[in-house]
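Worked example

This section walks through a single chain of length 228. The input is the sequence exactly as stored; nothing has been trimmed or padded.
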Amino acid sequence: MIAFMKQLNVSDLNAKDVKDHLPADPQQEAAALAEYAAAGIKLHAAGAIYFPKDEDADVRSKFEYCKRAGIGVIVAGDPSLESLPRLEKFAKEYDIRIAIHNHGPEDKVFPSPMDVLKAVKGMDARMGCCIDVGHAERAGTDVVEAIHAAGPRLFNMHMKDLTSFSDKESQVAVGDGKMPVPKMFETLIAMRYTGFVDLEYEVHPDDPMPGVISSFSYMRGVLAGMAR
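Given that input, the structure is written out below as tokens.
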């Protein structure tokens, strides 16, 4: 992972609790954190992290994992509606934000960012959303409108591109599909978004770097054009 990030000239990572990212085992986590620090890489979020048990011990273990790493945002995958008050309690205790990830039409609870926003309305300000742009569009949500609607509750974004908003398997490098990337960046800049837009490239696992490099090049080009 570090070698890939150096190649991309990227120094910030949304880590996942798996072996090659940030293992959940405390000793292995500490070793990984030391390697990231030596390489000048900062971890800004963790996830998607799942909360299958609405129990203090299980939830606390995930928050402790992020606290050890100095991570301020948990991208939460598929929490139940019933578990949200418990997540809110720990978000307050640890001062770590919960960014609930929408997972498209297959997700019966949070298919769209709009469903997330409805669920956290009136909750602590540390309860918000991570907009997965591909899943949002597949759920029939205009992602630019979702960004507007989320406002200060938008804590993270997962970027991808699709050639068809009705086909989950149509993912391509960012810039090669239908995603309104320039308009999304314009909206984020206008609302003074301070979080991260994390590339989530899920195709060609045996050789992802050509698509990853192409995606970063396109997004950087869009932002450079806006700066001019």
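What to look for: The mean pLDDT is 95.
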